[in-house]
Write a structure and sequence with these properties.
This protein is mainly beta. It is about 0% helix and about 50% strand. Strands 2, 4, 5, 6, 9, 10 and 11 form a seven-stranded mixed beta sheet that branches. Strands 1-3-8-7 form a four-stranded antiparallel beta sheet, with no helix packed on it.
Length: about 130
C-alpha cells in the first residue's frame, strides 16, 4: 500500500510559477517510478511527466517540455513538479501517481493504467 499526498497548488497569473509536491509513504520510495497527471474540467486525465526510481529516466509530454521539471528527493520520499511559464491551458487538477512495477526503478511510462496508486489531487488555476 502507498499513500500519496499532493500540495502546492493555487492560483497564479499567466507566466508565473508554482511548485507541486507529492509526499509518499508505505513502500520503499526509491524503488519505483512517480508520475504527474492532470485533468481539466470535461477532459480525460492526461500524462504530464514521470521519473524513474533511479532518476535515470525522465519523460515529459510535449506541451510542458522546457517549462516543467520533475524531480524527486528519495531521502524525503517526495516528488516535485516545478512549473514555470504557466499558461491558462495548464489549469487543471494535478495528480501524482506511483508505478510499483519492478522495472520502474529504471523506466517510466505515460500510460495511466500502469500506475498503481494515486493522490487526491491539487488544483492549479492559471489566470490570463
Amino acid at each position: 500500500q502507498v499513500q500519496l499526498v499532493e500540495s502546492g497548488g493555487g492560483v497564479v497569473q499567466a507566466g508565473g510559477s508554482l511548485r507541486l509536491s507529492c509526499a509518499a509513504s508505505g513502500r520503499t520510495f526509491s524503488r519505483y517510478a512517480m508520475g504527474w497527471f492532470r485533468q481539466a474540467p470535461g477532459k480525460e486525465r492526461e500524462f504530464v511527466a514521470a521519473i524513474s526510481g533511479s532518476e535515470s529516466s525522465i519523460y515529459y509530454t510535449d506541451s510542458v517540455k522546457g517549462r516543467f521539471t520533475i524531480s524527486r528527493d528519495n531521502a524525503k520520499n517526495t516528488v516535485y513538479l516545478q512549473m514555470n511559464s504557466l499558461r491558462p491551458e495548464d489549469t487543471a487538477v494535478y495528480f501524482c501517481a506511483a508505478d510499483l512495477a519492478i522495472g520502474s526503478y529504471y523506466y517510466t511510462t505515460n500510460r495511466r493504467d500502469d500506475y498503481d496508486y494515486w493522490g487526491q489531487g491539487t488544483q492549479v488555476t492559471v489566470s490570463s
